[in-house]
Amino acid sequence: MSLDWECKSDRLLLIGTADGGIKAWNVDAKRVVCDLNTSEAFPSVLDLKCSPVEPIFVSAAASRRHGSNYIESLGFASLTVWNMKTWRAMSALPLGEDPPAITSLSFNHNGKILAAAATDGMIHIFDMAAGLQITGWPAHDTAISSILFGPDETSIFSLGSDGKIFEWSLQNQGHILWSRNDARFCDPGTSKHCRHEMALDANGRKLLVTSGSVRAPIYQVRGYTNGLKTLPHSAAITTVDWHPTLPIFLTGSADNSVRVTSIL
């Protein structure tokens, strides 16, 4: 399942499902106000991202194939741009012939640039006005689980399924500004069922990452210390997020618990 909030009002929650469904839930009305479906050829919705400016969102869907884990069961990719006023598909972003599945999406602050991460370790950068890919580079030797723009948008963070974290320069493409090895928290057992994700705090200085353990790591970006760990759940931590302005973060666990923590 993938989730994202409509950015302007925060009243609509978009929900993407493994059976090709995309639902818009209105939190005020407490009901689904739109129920969409991807094409039958791409039934798994892996990620959804709403533009921070325009009334559009992009869905990353994938075909299916037989595989022993989550990544290996993903087939080819489809990136679709949807209009949130008409709730219709507007266009498909080009990825070439038989492209590997796209696992994670990230818009920059004005919605003009979209970053997409793939199972072959590639990062793709799209110009949304032109609807074209403008650049891309091989970032990981394994599938990429999560991708984020840095706070000043001169860099992009990527998390590989092998636990390697890189901060990439956008001014000097392919140059690594900072890295960490998160492999001890990326339990292969949890990766069979879900992908790991990460979140940056409001200042872009602390990076919170999901974990196959009961605690999740918090890394100091461009620092050399080991950073912090979250308070323990009783099972793997499967989702994380930061408050948009305050030093408060959220962790959700496979034990069905959610914890909100302040680091003041």
Key terms:
264 residues; mainly beta; Methylamine Dehydrogenase, Chain H; 2 domains
Explained architecture:
The model has no long low-confidence stretch (mean pLDDT 90). The protein has two domains: 192 residues, YVTN repeat-like/Quinoprotein amine dehydrogenase (Methylamine Dehydrogenase, Chain H, 7 Propeller), CATH 2.130.10; 68 residues. The chain is built from one helix and 23 strands. With 264 residues, the chain is mainly beta. The radius of gyration is 17 Å and the shape is globular. The two termini are 32 Å apart. This is Anaphase-promoting complex subunit 4-like WD40 domain-containing protein.
Short description:
Pfam families: ANAPC4_WD40 (PF12894), WD40 (PF00400). The protein is mainly beta.
CATH class of the largest domain: Mainly Beta
Beta-strand residue fraction: over 45%
The amount of helix comes to: under 10%
Element order: H for helix, E for strand: EEEEEEEEEEEEEEEEHEEEEEEE
